[in-house]
């Protein structure tokens, strides 16, 4: 049946038979449906036609050609349907959807579970919206804040999602640079009319450097699927080798037509299937065919399947938008027995518009990959929908689809709400369409899972894609079973430290979940080859799963382990010098494991095997596998191993930048450099070894002396044969002379060791001629690699490498240190020792301490471990190839997605973003504009780490408003004044108002009220342009194009200065045209174009006063976020020491805690309080992980005396704890403030004793003791924790957003304490009627115009508070406020603060004031060293305020920042904050100048505390001395190092000891004596040595009659100082007030003369104690202050005071109260001045002072 006539006859007869119409009555032009042909019969006819014509059945044929005539015309011609194309592989997907979905795994979980992903809309309307639509990691992609703010949000989405999709595909994005990769994006121009859609795709191509097609498609709802079609076509046409197909929808503003819209982005990575299989890519699914068209759904379906070579009847599932035309097309091609499964993403995510198709495709790809169809949240529509258009499934407000109705064939697919405008007939007799309303398997109707994805646009443009499953790669038979084998290098990287920590933590979590069955080699390979290696890098080198997780967790917490390697990739990758050591590195069976495990090494050995059999007479491979036999075998064996190891390095892509050798190692170096072939080198080694074996054993010694020191000694029989390092050499001589020399060196406390050997000495002269003769005819070549010789006098000279050179190599001294020094001087910084064990590296390190040294093998660390770690070192430093060569193939794993660090960038289109949108107001004389800014937009304008709106910004606001108001480009501003700095901590609205008279005002609103910030006068500028300043006489600065006014000011004003006002500014043109700025000494600044036109002229620029700090930067508070515990490490048994205050409640909880710890496998120990003196000895015998101190009920400490007793007990425990034991304080909350003072202690300990990691854990009565056991065992880093109903919360210091408050008014106020004087003046100035004072005089503070009443007495005494209140309320005057500012005297802090507050509380119980302020300090909020008394008293006040508020009483504490840790704050700044504090409605507010960088620099340990994570910079924190030493020694010994085991028992030998000493000297600046290292010292001993710490004991009185030096405060602080005060008896006094100090002092020294001293607050106590003693007639010789700050209102003292001031500190107010003050500046800062090495200077000065060797007199301050 080929001719038209035959085809017409067959059709006429067949249709007549189906319809019952006589053939002669059939009109070939009438549509078949009108003749009565059903859709089922139409499918039958189409199938039969396909068979008769020999074509694939086209089930949509009769729909496209509805009459016999049309069918004949279409079928009689050639088959024009699309032909089958090559399948396209889907390699990876990326998405960003509502509900926080940002990965394939998250999307699949949401689909399976039917999770509710509805996000908060930008304004109230239904829909599924992204919660962080303006969030973007701009820094990751290299954009600054201005570029990010001006960028289309859809472009931002696409950049991040593309990166994630490539990672999911296992493609490192950097590998695509310059490649033929196409970008096809579906996006609607209507979504964001402010931006050009073309840059969405172009921006991705530009940032990733992709050179293929870059296309944006806009066909409304079908955009993304049309983009997929074009991407597939580009691959087929060869236009691209890889394509990225994407769709994105971000609505601004969203339509309001009743449709449920959604936002999102999706990306798929596509490649030709043949290419994907060639490249070993993972194939998630394959696209078999695709097609597009307009308003012809059946045609589109048919074309897509024609390309796919399939039939719609074989499709299992269609992901569809649900238009009725598509429903009918699908229905006509199905049978009752094989229902079409359908679903739609719109039910879960709303109408995703341009992104719909791509998200639907991703869903289908994931369903095929997981072999499961997820349920769809859809409902079936009514059928009253148009035939074409943007019809789709919609979210179901009710139950799922009625499947019974479907089964009966009556249900239909339908539209979104609001679109039921065109009724149409129901396909009631259609085949079944079945929505997937629950998770189900694939039917596989054709034996293969096959799906279709459809999309249609509002204009009728549609697309369809046919997708099929692809076989998954076979899983390993025993997943995860290959741990503990070959060591692997597991890498992570990022662009920032915080992102690196998150990436490590995410990977650790992944290993505990989806990755728990992943083989280690697969994971290491995937991380190495299928992830981008960013600049900040880390690696964990291990074969142990537990060690990998531990290393990743340590990285996530900012720490490290012995398996962790850190580095930063530089601009120039490392190229190491290969160092070949001589004799002594060998060990039995070296290389045996590598022969079996490392193919590259095995190949290198195999290449040498024939040479060794022919020339050395033995098998190199065999010798490496067995112990040594003949000693003569060792030299050639080492040579062969070195040459093979060099080949191994080269096989990993590591080429030497240079080579150098030590003695016989020079032979291998010459071979590797290309100067000799391996055979010639082996001949030299064999001849050399044979001749040396014939010589009698010689005597040598290695001594820790330089060659010059050896020559200076009178040993004529001793000669230097090796210059190993500047401080070490090898000598030869007689046995007697060497014995004397070694004894002499030992006596110096240095290292010496006897050796047997003859090389490089006169003993070899007898064999030199035979050696020359045995070398034969050498044929050396010029080296191909730089060669440093250790033979010739000039290390850089190129040797001849002939027989004469090798004779000199055997005879002349080895000049190794000179060769190394030359290499270092030439810029080499990396040295790799190519040997079986690193014996030359210690000498390299001693010669040049700043270099990086790496071993190849190590007999201690295992052969493969050392090499793997060295590879990791090179990789983290930026070497591009080492891991690619180690892992040539890698699987694709579903690793965690990128850890984006997003900031908010509100979209601002190109052009001027200011002054914002015009706002209509009823007053015709006012013109108003408004715009919104957020903190992230001001990242480049910060004051004290808080974003501020600059004065130039206010200027731009009024200038832009003026240009719009006057309709001209030339305007002027006069008298612009910034009245108040605008700190932007959240979303802030800016309002610019210009009146007709030219008055301009800028206001801001961040809270409930508007605040005026700037005023000016504006007008049109009609004057002539000013003359340009002379470039010869004036300052000229070039500026970047479009820098504008802000750039002009930044270029001309002094660095660090900020303007806060302008006398006159004239804007005469577009400032973006300015290219240079001019300035003169009179304060004129001009912005000038390239043509010399002045476009801006500034006059009378006023600069902000130095040190101005915005209020938002000074306000702090504590939040308590819910913070789950990290996982508790398993497999480790811990011991805990439980101490109590012996209160019954504490004893009971200690017993319960002991039982809970025992149940968890731990051990609990106890020690009575009476035996605390034995605590050091107890802990020495029974090492514990931590000490836990449990307290009794809070009500037991209502009396301040009882609280202080407890504080003294706790401090006595702390004084006896070693540096590596964690300390927990445990309290039980009851709501009252009794024990809250311990918060202050913990805050102080964070500064003074960071190594203790002191933590306060407060549990309520409803939290089980089990949670406390878990808290201890977890090792969580938080230092303030609350358990409430078994839920954990942890304290975080944060900035507090304060809004402007109202001033006080008429009424009475009570002010206590001298610190309240400024507040009293402020109250008087703000309308106070009466001020009642206690502890200060109205005359002294200058109050006038107000009724001042002074009540004498101590506020802590009974009755005084009542008299204050009575005086305030006399005559019926209302009591408006109380300011409790007592506590100026360090001697009575607790009494005046704590007891005084209670007295005031009781006195106002019946008539509380409107507000109540308690003046606290930052010591209780932030902490401060040496401020225990102040911090604990103030912490009690903080808790007392909270306690009052829970009872409905007003109370707020103000934690003023008056501490050496913080910058001083002017009184005016403090008073400015008071209205905001009163309006804040918080129990406490900290007002302080916290310079985060300065604090982090002085107290780097704080960076490890989560408490400070929101305010201190996220920088790597140095480890403790013990941790650093552990890392050093573990890396040298290759294993975990117990704290108490002697290092020699762990394998420490002399060479390792030298390396450990060199590393410790670099790390700590302290030289460890070798006798200490080799004499049985353990890690604890070494840590104590380098830190100068010892157990806290008093030093003995070695000189009777010498009065002791009594030091006040924490005794641990003074340990390094005491070690250096030889012969000076010392005592310690720990007390929190002067009374306690005097009493304790009398116990240790009943009478004078006294010599007192102290650091920080301890110095203040020493000073006050000296003043008290002097007043009672006692003799005080000297008061020594270590960086202490004078207390406020300190009384004068006539005795001698010596202040040792840190280099960065001021004299701190002592000159005003000390008649005889001597000041010495010492190195270090407040925290480190008493730590090594800085402590040496104050110790020397103090020793001289105490010996009377300093001159008396006052030092000018």
Explain what you see.
The protein is α/β, with parallel strands linked by helices and 1757 residues long. It is 33% helix and 20% strand. The chain has an eleven-stranded mixed sheet with strand order 5-4-6-8-1-9-14-13-10-11-12, with helices on both faces. It has an eleven-stranded antiparallel sheet with strand order 28-29-34-35-36-32-38-41-40-39-37, covered by helices on one side. A hairpin with a 6-residue loop joins strand 28 (917-919) and strand 29. It is globular. The N and C termini lie far apart (115 Å). This is Modular polyketide synthase. InterPro entries: AB_hydrolase_fold, Ac_transferase_dom_sf, ACP-like_sf, Acyl_transferase_dom, Acyl_Trfase/lysoPLipase, Ketoacyl_synth_C, Ketoacyl_synth_N, KR_dom. One of its GO terms (cellular component) is cytoplasm. Keywords: Phosphopantetheine, Phosphoprotein, Transferase.
* CATH fourth-tier homologous superfamily of the largest domain: Thiolase/Chalcone synthase
What is the 3D shape? Answer: globular
Can you count the helices? 55
Specify Rg, calculated over alpha carbons: 41 Å
Report the sheet with the most strands, covering strand number, pairing sense and barrel closure: 11 strands, mixed
**CATH fold group of the largest domain:** Peroxisomal Thiolase, Chain A, domain 1
Number of strands: 63
How many domains make up the coordinates?
11
Q: In the CATH classification, which architecture of the largest domain applies?
A: 3-Layer(aba) Sandwich
**Helix/strand/pairing category:** alpha/beta
Separation of termini?
115 Å
Strand order of the largest sheet: 5-4-6-8-1-9-14-13-10-11-12
Mean pLDDT: 83
β-sheet strand percentage: 15-25%
């Amino acid at each position: 049946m080929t001719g038209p006539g035959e085809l017409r006859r067959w059709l006429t007869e067949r249709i007549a038979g189906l319809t019952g119409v006589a053939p002669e009555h059939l009109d070939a032009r009438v549509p078949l449906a009108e003749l009565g042909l059903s859709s089922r019969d139409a499918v039958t006819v189409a199938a039969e036609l396909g068979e008769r014509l020999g074509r694939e059945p086209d089930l949509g044929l009769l729909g496209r050609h509805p009459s016999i005539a049309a069918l004949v015309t279409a079928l009689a011609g050639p088959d024009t349907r699309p032909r089958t194309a090559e399948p396209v592989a889907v390699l990876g997907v990326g998405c960003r959807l509502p509900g926080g979905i940002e990965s394939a795994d998250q999307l699949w979980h949401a689909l399976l579970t039917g999770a509710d992903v509805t996000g908060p809309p930008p304004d109230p309307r239904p829909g599924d919206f992204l919660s962080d639509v303006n969030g973007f990691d701009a820094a990751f992609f290299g954009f600054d804040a201005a570029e990010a703010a001006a960028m289309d949000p859809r472009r931002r989405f696409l950049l991040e999602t593309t990166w994630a999709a490539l990672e999911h595909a296992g493609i490192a994005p950097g590998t695509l640079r310059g490649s033929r990769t196409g970008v096809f994006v579906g996006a609607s121009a209507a979504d964001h009319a402010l931006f050009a859609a073309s840059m969405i795709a172009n921006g991705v191509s530009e940032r990733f450097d992709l050179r293929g097609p870059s296309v944006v498609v806009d066909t409304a709802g079908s955009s993304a699927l049309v983009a997929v079609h074009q991407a597939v076509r580009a691959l087929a046409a060869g236009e691209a080798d890889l394509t990225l197909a994407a769709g994105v929808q971000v609505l601004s503003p969203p339509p309001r037509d009743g449709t449920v819209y959604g936002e999102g982005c999706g990306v798929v990575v596509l490649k030709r299937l043949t290419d994907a299989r060639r490249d070993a890519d993972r194939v998630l699914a394959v696209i078999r065919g695709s097609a597009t068209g307009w308003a012809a759904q059946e045609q589109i379906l048919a074309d897509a399947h024609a390309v796919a070579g399939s039939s719609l009847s074989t499709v299992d599932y269609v992901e569809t938008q649900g238009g009725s035309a598509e429903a009918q097309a699908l229905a006509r091609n199905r049978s009752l027995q094989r229902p079409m499964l359908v679903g739609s993403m719109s039910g879960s995510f709303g109408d995703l518009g341009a992104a719909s198709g791509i998200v639907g495709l991703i869903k289908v790809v994931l369903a095929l990959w997981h072999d499961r169809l997820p349920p769809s949240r859809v409902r079936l529509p009514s059928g009253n929908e148009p035939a074409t258009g943007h019809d789709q499934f919609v979210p179901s407000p009710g139950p799922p689809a009625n499947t019974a109705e479907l089964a009966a064939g009556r249900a239909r697919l339908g539209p979104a709400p609001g679109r039921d405008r065109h009724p149409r007939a129901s396909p009631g007799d259609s085949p079944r369409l079945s929505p997937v309303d629950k998770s189900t398997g694939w039917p596989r109707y054709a034996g293969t899972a096959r799906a279709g994805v459809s999309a249609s646009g509002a204009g009728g443009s549609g697309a369809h894609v046919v997708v099929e499953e692809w076989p998954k790669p076979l899983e390993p038979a025993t997943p995860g079973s290959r741990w503990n084998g070959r060591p692997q290098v597991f890498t992570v990287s990022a662009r920032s430290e915080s992102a690196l920590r998150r990436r490590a933590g995410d990977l650790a979590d992944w290993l505990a979940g989806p990755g728990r069955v992943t083989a280690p080699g697969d994971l290491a390979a995937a991380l190495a080859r299928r992830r981008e290696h960013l600049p900040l890098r880390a690696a964990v080198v291990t074969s142990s799963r537990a060690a990998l997780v531990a290393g990743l967790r340590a990285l996530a917490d900012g720490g490290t382990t012995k398996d962790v390697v850190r580095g930063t990739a530089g601009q120039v990758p490392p190229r190491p010098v290969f160092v070949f050591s001589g004799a002594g590195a060998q060990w039995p069976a070296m290389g045996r494991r590598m022969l079996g495990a490392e193919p590259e090494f095995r190949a290198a050995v195999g290449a040498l095997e024939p040479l060794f059999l022919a020339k050395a007479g033995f098998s190199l491979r065999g010798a490496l596998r067995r112990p040594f036999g003949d000693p003569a075998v060792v030299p050639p064996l080492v040579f062969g191993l070195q040459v093979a190891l060099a080949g191994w390095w080269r096989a990993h892509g590591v080429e030497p930048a240079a080579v150098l050798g030590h003695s016989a190692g020079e032979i291998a170096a010459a071979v590797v450099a290309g100067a000799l072939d391996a055979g010639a080198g082996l001949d030299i080694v064999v001849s050399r070894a044979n001749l040396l074996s014939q010589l009698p054993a010689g005597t040598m010694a290695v001594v820790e002396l330089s060659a010059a020191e050896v020559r200076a000694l009178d040993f004529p029989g001793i000669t230097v044969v090796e210059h190993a390092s500047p401080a070490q050499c090898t000598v030869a001589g007689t046995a007697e002379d060497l014995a004397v020399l070694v004894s002499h060196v030992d006596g110096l406390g240095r290292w010496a060791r006897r050796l047997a050997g003859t090389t490089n000495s006169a003993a070899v002269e007898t064999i030199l001629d035979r050696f020359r003769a045995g070398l034969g005819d050498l044929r050396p070549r010029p080296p191909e690699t730089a060669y440093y010789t250790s033979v010739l006098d000039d290390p850089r000279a190129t040797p001849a490498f002939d027989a004469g050179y090798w004779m000199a190599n055997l005879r002349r001294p080895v000049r190794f240190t000179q060769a190394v020094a030359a290499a270092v001087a030439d810029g080499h910084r990396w040295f790799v020792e190519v040997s079986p064990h690193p014996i030359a590296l210690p000498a390299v390190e001693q010669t040049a301490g700043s270099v990086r040294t790496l071993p190849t093998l190590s007999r201690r660390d295992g052969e493969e471990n050392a090499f793997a770690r060295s590879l990791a070192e090179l990789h983290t430093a930026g070497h591009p190839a080492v891991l690619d060569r180690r892992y040539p193939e890698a699987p694709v794993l579903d690793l965690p997605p990128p850890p984006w660090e997003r900031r908010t960038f509100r979209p601002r289109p190109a052009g001027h973003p200011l002054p914002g949108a015009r706002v209509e107001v009823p007053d015709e004389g006012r013109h108003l504009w408004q715009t919104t800014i957020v903190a992230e937009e001001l990242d480049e304008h910060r004051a004290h780490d808080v974003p501020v709106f600059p004065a130039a910004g206010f200027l731009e606001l009024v200038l832009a408003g003026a240009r719009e108001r006057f309709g001209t480009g030339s305007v002027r501003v006069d008298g612009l004044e910034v009245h108040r700095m605008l700190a932007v901590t959240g979303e802030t609205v800016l309002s610019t108002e210009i009146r007709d008279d030219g008055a301009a005002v800028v206001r801001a609103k961040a809270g409930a009220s508007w605040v005026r910030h700037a005023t000016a006068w504006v007008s049109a500028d009609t004057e002539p342009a000013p003359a340009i300043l002379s470039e010869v006489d004036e300052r000229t600065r070039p500026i970047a194009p479009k820098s504008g006014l802000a750039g002009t000011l930044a270029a001309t004003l002094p660095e660090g200065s900020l303007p806060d006002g302008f006398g006159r500014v004239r804007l005469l043109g577009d400032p973006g045209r300015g290219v240079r700025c001019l300035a003169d000494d009179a304060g004129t600044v001009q912005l000038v174009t390239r043509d010399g036109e002045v476009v801006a002229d500034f006059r009378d620029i006023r600069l902000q006063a130095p040190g101005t700090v915005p209020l938002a930067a000074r306000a702090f508070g504590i939040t308590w976020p819910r913070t789950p515990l990290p996982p508790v490490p398993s497999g480790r048994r811990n011991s805990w020491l439980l101490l109590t205050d012996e209160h019954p409640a504490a004893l009971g909880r200690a017993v319960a805690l002991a039982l809970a710890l025992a149940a968890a496998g731990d051990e609990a120990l106890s020690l009575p309080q009476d035996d605390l003196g034995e605590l050091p000895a107890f802990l020495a015998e029974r090492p514990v992980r931590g000490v836990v101190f449990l307290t009794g009920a809070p009500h037991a400490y209502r009396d301040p005396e009882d609280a202080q007793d407890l504080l003294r007990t706790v401090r006595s425990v702390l004084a006896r704890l070693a540096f590596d034991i964690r300390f927990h304080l445990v309290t039980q909350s009851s709501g009252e403030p009794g024990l809250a003072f311990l918060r202050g202690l913990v805050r102080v300990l964070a500064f003074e004793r960071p190594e203790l990691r002191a933590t306060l854990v407060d549990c309520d009565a409803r939290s089980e003791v089990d949670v406390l056991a878990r808290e201890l065992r977890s090792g969580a880093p938080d230092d303030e924790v609350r358990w409430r109903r078994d839920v954990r919360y942890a304290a975080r210091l944060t900035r507090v957003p304060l809004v402007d408050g109202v001033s006080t008014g008429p009424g009475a106020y009570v002010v206590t304490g001298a610190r309240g004087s400024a507040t009293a003046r402020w109250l008087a100035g703000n309308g106070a009627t009466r001020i009642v004072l206690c502890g200060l005089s109205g005359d002294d503070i200058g109050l006038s115009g107000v009724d001042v009443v002074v009540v004498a007495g101590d506020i802590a005494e009974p009755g005084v508070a009542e008299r204050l209140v009575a005086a305030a309320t006399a005559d019926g005057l209302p009591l408006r406020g109380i300011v409790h500012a007592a506590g100026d005297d360090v001697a009575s802090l607790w009494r005046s603060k704590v007891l005084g507050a209670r007295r005031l509380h009781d006195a106002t119980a019946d008539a509380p004031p409107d507000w109540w302020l308690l003046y606290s300090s930052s010591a209780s909020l932030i902490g401060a060293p040496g401020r225990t008394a102040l911090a604990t008293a103030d912490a009690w006040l903080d808790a007392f305020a909270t306690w009052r508020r829970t009872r409905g009483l007003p109370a707020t504490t103000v934690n003023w920042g008056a501490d050496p840790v913080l910058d001083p704050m002017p009184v005016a700044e403090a008073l400015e904050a008071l209205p905001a504090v009163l309006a804040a409605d918080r129990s406490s507010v900290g007002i302080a100048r916290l310079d985060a960088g300065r604090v982090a620099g002085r107290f780097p340990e704080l960076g490890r505390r989560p408490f400070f994570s929101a305010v201190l910079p996220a920088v790597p924190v140095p480890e403790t001395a013990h941790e650093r030493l552990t890392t050093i020694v573990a890396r040298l010994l290759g294993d975990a190092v117990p704290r108490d085991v002697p290092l020699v028992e762990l394998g420490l030998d002399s060479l390792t000891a030298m390396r450990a000493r060199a590393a410790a000297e670099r790390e700590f600046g302290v030289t460890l004596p070798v006798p200490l290292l080799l004499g049985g010292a353990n890690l604890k001993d070494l840590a104590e040595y380098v830190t100068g710490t010892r157990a806290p004991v008093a030093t003995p009185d070695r000189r009777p009659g010498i009065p002791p030096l009594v030091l006040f405060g924490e005794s641990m602080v003074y340990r390094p100082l005491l070690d250096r005060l030889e012969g000076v008896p010392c005592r310690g006094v720990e007390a929190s007030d002067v009374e306690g100090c005097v009493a304790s002092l009398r116990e240790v020294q009943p009478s004078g003369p006294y010599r007192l001293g102290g650091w920080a607050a301890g110095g203040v106590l020493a000073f006050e104690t000296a003043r008290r003693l002097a007043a009672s007639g006692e003799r005080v010789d000297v008061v020594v202050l270590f960086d202490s700050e004078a207390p406020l209102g300190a009384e004068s003292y006539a005795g001698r005071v010596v202040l040792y001031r840190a280099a960065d500190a001021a004299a701190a107010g002592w000159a005003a109260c000390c008649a005889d003050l001597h000041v010495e500046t010492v190195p270090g800062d407040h925290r480190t001045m008493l730590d090594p090495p800085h402590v040496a200077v104050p110790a020397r000065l103090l020793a001289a002072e105490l010996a009377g060797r300093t001159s008396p007199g006052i030092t000018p301050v």
